[in-house]
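User: Fold both of these, please.

Assistant: Here is the first one.
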Amino acid sequence: MPAILRKLSTDMLPQGLDDRQRFLRFSELFEHFSDTAELDPAPGVPFRAAMNSIHVGTTMLGRCDGTFTAIRRERRQVLKTNDDRYCLARNTGDRDGVLVHRGREFSLRPGSITLLKLDEPFVSADGAQAKRFTNVHLPPLTLRSMVPGVDEMVGRELEPGGALSLAMDYADLLLSHPAAVEQAGFAIASHMLDLAAVGLGARGDIALAARRGGVRAVRLRAVLTILEQRFTEPDFSAQKLAEAAGLSERYVNELLFEAGASFTARLTERRLHKAAERLAHGEGRISDIAFECGFNDLSYFNRCFRRRFGLTPTAARGR
């Protein structure tokens, strides 16, 4: 399943706008970016906002950080979007938030999580000049089938910790490394749902299956993130990857194989793509590029490159 990545920031606005013009222009763009809510700018401080999101089918991961005092979902947005998904939201700011949903007012401490329903209005308005939060939108029918009493948890503070916090940590990790999502969109959406279901109280066989799938997914993403950060090290190995992830080498190899490719295949592929990218931009000597991308044998690099791309590194330069 393909993933759709989106970004919106006040840094993208034209230069020369005053603060009110910046807010109005951003609000207009935000309505097209995600017609989920409206923002009230904080008085006395320059308006700033940054948002990014990942959409995989009906699952969405999002993050927002900015100088606004309130976030509100009005009745017009409920009617316009016809969106009935559940929304897990975590306060990643440094002070308590105050929310009103389903007629209840409740606090949301830093790190705490709440469950909202997008087919009902809500407002978060607490006087703070800045807000920062992560949210995950989940399909309602599937979540209800996994957690029959899930509606009873809507509109209240949920304690941090356990699988719910793990789900939000997973979302933050993916939002920080969005390119990785494009390789495994469907699996990521499924694992996110598993973690949320376990955290919200799934029971029996459903909980067992979800726990196994969700936890392995988080560990796999951590392994892939480390691999992405260190693939250019010439002596990088499965053992070093396992040590960095705090897992056994055998377990790491099992995770990678289940996800479609061995450690060696993934490492070589990532190095080759980095080399091809640099060659396409005409950067440096071929030998320097090979070594800087992690290959310590130029002949081996040339063979691998030709086998993977159907042409020599020399022919690939500038293409």
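And the second sequence with its predicted structure:
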Amino acid sequence: MAKVQHFEIPADDVGRAKSFYGSVFGWTYDEWDDDTAMIHAVGDDSIGGDIYKRESPEAPTVVITVDSIEQSLDAILKAGGQRLGGIETMEGMGRYAYFTDPEGNRLGLWDTKTD
């Protein structure tokens, strides 16, 4: 069963967004660089996320963990969704890809394959 694993929040001002979410929800962060921070949400059952510098008009993205990105993309295409770009690798962690559903919503896929 696929589960929501991660979320991504675009921001015009990453520092302002971190301050907002930190004060409202108690989130803490690991800094990746000046434009990206990994979110540590509160609670044992919380999912993780990141805040990143917005490059174009974007909405937050939900990322779903699956067993196989390829199989999921095949199912997405058959059900009327669209693939956005290729499958990318985060070295030693896993792979991700993006798609849109038939309503035009952008979502992500994640699997833990590293080869």
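The domain at 61-115 is CATH 3.10.180.10 (2,3-Dihydroxybiphenyl 1,2-Dioxygenase; domain 1).
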